[in-house]
Amino acid sequence: MDALCWNHPSISLKGSEISENHGFFRPKSSSHLHFRAAMNSSNPESKPSPLKIQNRMFILGMGFVGQFFAQELKYSGWSVSGTCRNLGQKMELEGRGFDVYVFDANDPEQGTLKAMKYHTHLLISIPPDVDVGDPLLQHEKLLRTTLQGGDLRWLCYLSSTSVYGDYGGAWVNEDNPTNPSSQSGKLRIEAEERWLNLGNDLGLSTQVLRLGGIYGPGRSAIDTIITQRSLSERQHRRARRQYTSRVHVQDICQALKACIQRPSSRRVYNIVDDDPAPREEVFSYARDLVEKKWPRKLSTLSKQVEASVITNGSGRGDKRVCNVRMKRELGVSLVYPSYKSGLQSIIDQMGDEEPF
Ligand SMILES: NC(=O)c1ccc[n+]([C@@H]2O[C@H](COP(=O)([O-])OP(=O)(O)OC[C@H]3O[C@@H](n4cnc5c(N)ncnc54)[C@H](OP(=O)(O)O)[C@@H]3O)[C@@H](O)[C@H]2O)c1
Description:
The protein has 356 residues and is of the alpha/beta class.
């Protein structure tokens, strides 16, 4: 999808650059610098007036999805800020034009929370921790107090389809009860509920996206085969599932943009493609693509890795996650409805030079 396809028609108010289209205010200057300057001013509670008119995204946890989405928003003229956990990454991200805060959700820094308040949109991409649950929600009271009365109007929490648990290979949608067996799945449900409550209490459009297994450039079965890494035990467990739902990162971005365009209250969406498939099938497809592009280059190690995925397959029932609500309510038309087209695009983007 073209970065600008999701634009609503702009509403231009005389003498200003207010945009109601959620994406297309193109700043005449580097507005995040104004913003930082305003945040550093003697009165941190005073709102920086020129910035009130621009869409500003704050991404808690600029990991794989966070960075991909940040880049897409930036192309569309948004001002994007976010967090990471080390200085090296902060510098790298700042070099790409983002306003970045080093931030540990277990010990949240007040200045970062205040900065968050003066953004219009907040995406939470930090996963729960097995020991403490959602790390930021340990400080929920502080968060609520700080965010009140700011500019936020949209909040989205990135969750996981793991919340459904095992459905023995049946289809599940958002109305099916959640029943995770894993501790991380249980913590996800708790985090979903608490973020929905928080957003709702603050009067924001609040949505939860339950993502399937995320893949994209740099993180896919093709990358695993090429780098010839052994599969982790977690990957083996996933491989043994009868069905795994997955989604290309570009389609996650589409869904996020659609959520921004269609605000709602406490709505939950599955974000997956149309083609849940066993992981061994995905690996086998990826291997064929690699062998076709670079014949006879795969080592025995990578063949052993794949063989172990297949022989370990116990066919344990899981679930197939349904994406009808995402299509009907958000109007998302998947760029990659199947892992096949997704993997094909990843290998096509790799160029001809041997990556081994
Ligand atoms: N990977 C999947 O297949 C999958 C499937 C469904 C849902 N999800 C969830 O969807 C979300 C986005 O996925 P993703 O693949 O983009 O995740 P990711 O690359 O792991 O990004 C998560 C981000 O959160 C940061 N983070 C973690 N704990 C933190 C803490 N205590 N304080 C501050 N920052 C913290 C990480 O920092 P560091 O980089 O320093 O670790 C990273 O920037 C995550 O919540 C993920 O768990 C993932």
